[in-house]
């Protein structure tokens, strides 16, 4: 609750300090005193209170409590207020007492008592404007803390008439928006009434529209335009909450010349080529070839610096950059002072400092899958995890992302073990499951007794599942060891790395029981994806194994580039592609939400996915000739 008081009253702190020293009761005889700091104010007022007669002492203690609340020292404020003899307070001082006590109780998480105390204020209109602002904000926050978001919003809506500062109006509108957003969408609609003010109905309607159509930007923007006509002078239009600002400013990118920066030769050439094929498949799929943008490919492997092909693309007139692929190349470009045209990088940096309106990053990071593994585990009721990860940067990144998200949900990562080579896997798995300690105890007892013993080996019992990052070959070795050491019943949740992307029941039978996420192009059994895979079988067979993840990256990147700003503005709006559901966060990072499957008899069986409908245009066949691509550079 501490945040309610601090955020609500920050802007009136200075003026209230002056009011507190002036007091609501008789003036101090020491008129020459000029306070220079809050600490000195409190010290001075407490000293005056000790020396004052009972009739004056009560008012001074109330003033001290008011200052303590502004410093969020709620325990001390309560201690002072308990000492106040209320019989000596004037009616206006009694209102001060009830306000400060209500704020104190709210800060101490006693929301119900806080609301009762604040509702005991009898004559707020007799107070200065600053006091009325503080009271209304605290009363609103108390209603919100008690679960009455509608009343909390109503109070702040009425408060707008007392505020003449644009920044304060903006802040107040954010609070109204946040409160109403906690109300269920259908209930929001029912709260609209002819008995409400036009202003209140306008707020209820705009929040309802946002919640109802937040997943569909086209509908949302159309509904918002209609709302503006009905409420042309509504306060939320003048001082828009941040969510509405993003929605109103969201526009589609309409590039005419796209420059694709990819390594098309050297060591990353094969990856660059499959991404390029995905881009071209999406490009040729467009129904209107005349309006399709021109695409130019630049081979980044031919230059020592990533800036060379980037600058050449700009000089050639590119108005959208797609790429580059490697983290190093992305970092070099984003470190430039200005990025003159929109850019969708085909990799993700961990540094979120590159936040510009026209910069977006899209890749296949292990972090996204680690987070989804943590979410899946928590969803299944698991709360205690152990992790088995490669001893490299991928393992480190996976651990960090998994740990942070799983612990944020309320889970616990009990232990992390790493591996780095096949020949030590047996010992590493023993260590992971704690059976090595069991074996050590057996040997110690046998040595002590001097004879062999009947012995039942036991694994650790504190873990509810294993989080695994491993390649198919490593996974095929790790899972049998897990089974052998009495952990066949311990669930294993892995990343997509464990699947080769191609059905191989004979080899993958050793992966039985492992659950993992992957792109729907590879594992979904929904009709649209089955049709797409059947088409690719003839024209792009390499997209049907693990390389399909890069093909989908290229395809989806081209498909969503026009909508990037809209996706960023509407966090509830996801676009369904070959690589899963795609969403964009406020930092411009594209996140993938994947399909889940579990190995059974060596074959992945889908365990969780959202029903979707892909775009109806079929993928182009090899003979399609729509669209036109410029030669590679």
- Net shape: globular
Which CATH top level class of the domain at 2-234 fits?
Mainly Alpha
Estimated structural class: alpha/beta
Q: How many beta-strand runs?
A: 15
Q: What's the rounded overall pLDDT mean?
A: 85
Helicity level:
40-55%
Topology record:
Layout: H1 2-9, H2 13-22, H3 38-51, H4 54-70, H5 74-82, H6 91-107, H7 111-118, H8 129-145, H9 149-159, H10 166-181, H11 185-191, H12 198-213, H13 217-230, H14 235-238, H15 242-249, E1 257-262, H16 269-284, E2 294-299, H17 307-315, E3 320-322, H18 327-334, E4 343-345, E5 359-361, H19 366-379, E6 384-390, H20 393-409, E7 412-419, H21 425-433, H22 435-449, E8 465-468, H23 472-487, E9 492-494, H24 505-508, E10 514-518, H25 520-523, H26 527-539, H27 548-560, H28 564-569, E11 575-577, E12 580-584, E13 590-593, E14 595-600, E15 603-608
Parallel strand pairs: 1-2, 1-3, 3-4, 4-5, 6-7, 6-8, 8-9, 9-10
Antiparallel strand pairs: 10-14, 11-12, 12-13, 14-15
Helix pairs in contact: 1-8, 2-4, 3-4, 4-5, 4-6, 5-6, 6-7, 6-8, 7-8, 8-9, 9-10, 10-12, 11-12, 12-13, 16-27, 19-20, 21-23
Overview of this structure, please?
There is one protein chain. Among the domains are: 2-234, Tetratricopeptide repeat domain (Serine Threonine Protein Phosphatase 5, Tetratricopeptide repeat); 381-490, Rossmann fold, CATH 3.40.50. A 7-stranded mixed β-sheet has the order 7-6-8-9-10-14-15, sandwiched between helices. Strands 2-1-3-4-5 form a 5-stranded parallel β-sheet, with helices on both faces. Strands 11-12-13 form a 3-stranded antiparallel β-sheet. The protein is globular, with a radius of gyration of 32 Å. With 633 residues, the chain is an alpha/beta fold.
């Amino acid at each position: 609750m501490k945040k309610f008081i601090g955020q609500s009253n920050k802007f009136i702190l200075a003026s209230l300090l002056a009011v507190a020293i002036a007091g609501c009761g008789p003036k101090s005889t020491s008129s020459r005193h000029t306070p220079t700091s809050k600490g000195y104010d409190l010290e001075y007022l407490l000293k005056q209170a000790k020396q004052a007669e009972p009739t004056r002492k009560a008012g001074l203690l109330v003033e001290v409590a008011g200052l303590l609340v502004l410093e969020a020292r709620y325990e001390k404020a309560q201690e002072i207020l308990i000492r106040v003899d209320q019989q000596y307070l004037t009616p206006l001082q009694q209102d001060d007492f009830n306000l400060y006590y209500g704020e104190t109780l709210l800060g101490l998480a006693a929301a119900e008592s806080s609301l009762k105390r604040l509702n005991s204020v009898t004559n707020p209109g007799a107070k200065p404007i600053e006091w009325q602002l503080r009271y209304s904000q605290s009363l609103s926050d108390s209603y919100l803390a008690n679960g009455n978001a509608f009343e909390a919003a109503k109070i702040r809506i009425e408060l707008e008439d007392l505020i003449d500062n644009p920044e304060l109006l903006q802040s107040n509108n954010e609070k109204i928006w946040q409160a109403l957003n906690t109300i269920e969408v259908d209930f929001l609609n029912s709260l609209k009434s002819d008995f409400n003010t036009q202003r209140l109905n306008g707020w209820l309607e705009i929040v309802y529209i946002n919640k109802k159509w937040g997943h569909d930007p086209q509908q949302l923007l159309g509904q918002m335009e209609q709302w503006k006509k009905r409420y042309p002078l509504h306060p939320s239009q003048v001082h828009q909450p941040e969510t509405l600002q993003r929605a109103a400013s969201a526009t589609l990118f309409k590039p005419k010349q796209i420059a694709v920066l990819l390594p098309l030769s050297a060591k990353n050439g094969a990856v660059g080529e499959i991404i390029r094929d995905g881009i071209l498949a999406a490009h040729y799929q467009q129904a209107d070839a005349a309006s399709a943008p021109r695409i130019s490919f630049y081979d980044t492997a031919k230059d020592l610096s990533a800036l060379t092909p980037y600058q050449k693309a700009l000089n050639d007139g590119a108005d959208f950059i797609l790429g580059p692929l490697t983290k190093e190349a992305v970092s070099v470009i984003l470190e430039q002072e200005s990025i003159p045209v929109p850019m969708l990088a085909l990799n993700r940096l961990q540094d979120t400092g590159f936040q510009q309106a026209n910069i977006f990053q899209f890749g296949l990071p292990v972090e996204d899958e680690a987070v989804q593994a943590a979410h899946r585990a928590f969803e299944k009721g698991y709360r205690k995890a152990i992790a088995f990860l490669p001893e490299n940067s991928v393992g480190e990144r996976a651990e960090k992302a998994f740990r942070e998200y799983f612990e944020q949900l309320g889970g616990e990562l009990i232990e992390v073990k790493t591996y780095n080579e096949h020949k030590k896997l047996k010992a590493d798995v023993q260590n992971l499951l704690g059976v090595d300690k069991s074996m050590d105890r057996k040997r110690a007892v046998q040595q002590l007794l001097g004879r062999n013993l009947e012995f039942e080996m036991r694994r650790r019992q504190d873990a509810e599942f294993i989080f695994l990052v491993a390649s198919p070959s490593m996974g095929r070795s790790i899972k049998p060891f897990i089974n052998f050491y009495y952990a066949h019943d311990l669930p294993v949740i892995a990343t997509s790395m464990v699947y080769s992307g191609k059905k191989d029941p004979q080899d993958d039978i050793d992966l039985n029981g492992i659950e993992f996420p992957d792109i729907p192009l590879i594992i979904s059994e929904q009709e649209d994806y089955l049709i797409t895979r059947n088409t690719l079988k003839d024209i792009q067979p390499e997209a049907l194994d693990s390389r399909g993840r890069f093909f989908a990256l290229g395809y989806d990147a081209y498909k969503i580039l026009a909508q990037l700003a809209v996706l960023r503005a509407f966090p509830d709006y996801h676009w369904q592609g070959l690589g899963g559901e795609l969403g964009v966060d406020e930092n411009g990072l594209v996140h993938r939400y994947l399909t889940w499957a579990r190995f059974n008899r060596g074959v992945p069986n889908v365990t969780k996915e959202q029903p979707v409908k892909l775009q109806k245009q079929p993928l182009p066949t090899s003979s399609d000739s729509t669209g036109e691509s410029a030669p590679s550079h």
